[in-house]
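The protein record quoted for completeness.
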Amino acid sequence: MSRRLQPYMTDGMIKSRGDYGDCIHNMGTVHFQVMASRKYHLMTWSDYTFIDAKSWERTVHRLEVKPGQWIRHDDSNDPLAWTSNPSCISRDSIRPIIRAAAVMGDRGVIKRFAWAHLKRLWLFMPNNRRNGSTLANHGEFYDSNVKLNKWHKFILKYRIPLFGTPKGVRNYNWKLPDPTGPPFWAMLFRGLGVPFYPLFWLADIMSVISAYGTVKKSTYYIDPNGSNKGHKGDIRNSHEHLQFCKMYYNTWFNTWAMKVYSRLDPQHACDLWWSEERNEAPLNETMRPLTHYMFGKSNGN
């Protein structure tokens, strides 16, 4: 298993389709999945020998640029790269780091983030810039087929905030950041070891609703031909969130959400998205032991 993942690592960091946009996400996922699997004796230390306390310390040292402030990757050769801009850290990119910090026993990471998040009243993430966009490439096209109308050109030329432009052109204008709410707050309290059950119940009820919604649109992830449709197959945040909640202050509502979510065949969905066949780092292999343990096996996976 280790040999399959190592080719996708460069300088200790896991790429995603040739770039580092999801590096922080990938590093959080692999540390959470591997260390949690070891905790339940589903893996041994001979599996993924390069994932341990030292690799976690290195990840934190490189990606936490200030207390509680994170970047996607430390592009030391290009300080203007969007991946090294704290204004591009989204809600989904930080959640795997919080989960990994909990299973690594590193509550200091969670505390520092919680204090930094308090400056935003625990309501928003800092990602007020769009992924891939920088001051240097603002207005550049990465899809030659995109056509802009006069309004879009006006937005880009005069740096009008909030308004979006079609995908295919870089837009560095200010945007609304990701909101955070009960599920995110509950994740922080769970990671800190604070048994705030009223919040957990509310958050896990929301997980039940979300699970039904995910299963209802599951054709985006799995179809009868076993192929992935579109670009909506990366379900690992939903997947890992339920696992994390089961590990830390599980509630009956989270168990309900997991039963609903298991209809989706979570491992198969991960195999369709995070696999070498899609030129992605095979994170699906790191997920397999814990997924089988918590969701059960199905479809022969």
About this structure: The chain has a mean pLDDT of 87. The beta strands are 9-10, 13-14, 64-66, 69-70.
